[in-house]
Amino acid sequence: MSEQAITESAVQDSANDLFKKSFSSWFWGSMTTATVLHFAIFALWPQMTPEDVSLSMDEIEAIELPPEIEIPPPPEAIARPATPVVATAEIETDITIAPTTFESVSVEDLPPPPDDVETDISAAPVFTPYTVKPDYTNGAEVMRALEREYPPLLRDAGIGGTTLVWFFIDEQGIVRNQQVQESSGHTALDDAALRVAPVFKFTPALNRDKAVPVWVQLPITFTTK
């Protein structure tokens, strides 16, 4: 390539340079066109107004909260009442009889022999001599009777007591009569003790080698402990 051709190619403008040189004409031409267009729009449609694009919000209504309610704690579990028990009692067997001698008793002063009349000792507690005391033999059955006859209102309230009861026991060891000797302080417990008393079964009381009817006293206790 000749030196002249290289010089002409070096001085020739590129497309980017040509675009930069034409920027001014393009800018002012666009501005003029936009201005004319806006004036034409306002002239032809003078009633045009911009759309309301403002935001609206509904009024927030305040809601009153209900008062706080204090929830009570759950009730305590009701303890199951304990099984009532029969208190043990010792039947007094030590009987003291004043010594009697023939010298101190005159035959002439003796009263006549009593009439041979049988007396019913089951009506009321009286002393009957015996050498072997009766013992009850059905403890499990008595315990069930205590549970059954315990007044529910007193049991649930934890109220107990001891009733001292007279038992009249015949020659077969069967309870034929019962009476309250000392109250527990609650009529309902005393009545329950009298209902339990016939459930007792005893060994017969013995006077030497003979079975005899006797009155004995035993405590009947109702308790929830």
Tell me what the structure shows.
This protein is of the alpha+beta class and 225 residues long. 28% of the residues lie in helices and 14% in strands. It is built from six helices and five strands. The chain has helices at 3-11, 15-21, 23-44, 139-149, 152-156, 187-196, and strands spanning 161-169, 175-182, 205-207, 210-212, 214-222. The strands form two sheets. It has a three-stranded antiparallel β-sheet with strand order 2-1-5. The chain has a two-stranded antiparallel sheet with strand order 3-4. Strand 1 (161-169) and strand 2 (175-182) form a beta hairpin. Helix 4 (139-149) runs antiparallel to helix 6 (187-196). The longest helix is centred in the first third of the chain and has 22 residues, at 23-44. It is rod-shaped. The protein starts with a helix and ends with a strand. The mean pLDDT is 79.
Number of helices: 6
Largest sheet: 3 strands, antiparallel
Spatial order of the strands forming the largest sheet: 2-1-5
Strand content: 5-15%
Cα radius of gyration in angstroms? 60 Å
* Termini gap: 130 Å
Mean pLDDT: 79
Number of strands: 5
- What is the element string, with H for helices and E for strands? HHHHHEEHEEE
What structural class do the secondary elements suggest? Answer: alpha+beta
Q: Segments where pLDDT lies below 50 for 5+ residues?
A: none
Q: What is the percent of helical residues?
A: 25-40%
Shape: rod-shaped
